[in-house]
Amino acid sequence: MTEAKNMDMAQYGLERLCAIVSQNWHLSAQEIKQAVIDDLRRHIGPQKVFDDITLLVLKRT
Known about the structure:
The protein has about 60 residues and is mainly α. Helices cover about 45% and strands about 0% of the residues.
């Protein structure tokens, strides 16, 4: 995920991933997953996804 590039060839990056998780930590694991995927898709824009997206979200209660 962190290596996904946008049209300008800028990577999504670990900092952006951590930021979106930090902004959504209070949501359910499913909602956090969706927030991250939505943000990743905004980052890559209209490009086709050429690789798989692997994301595991765990919450401890």
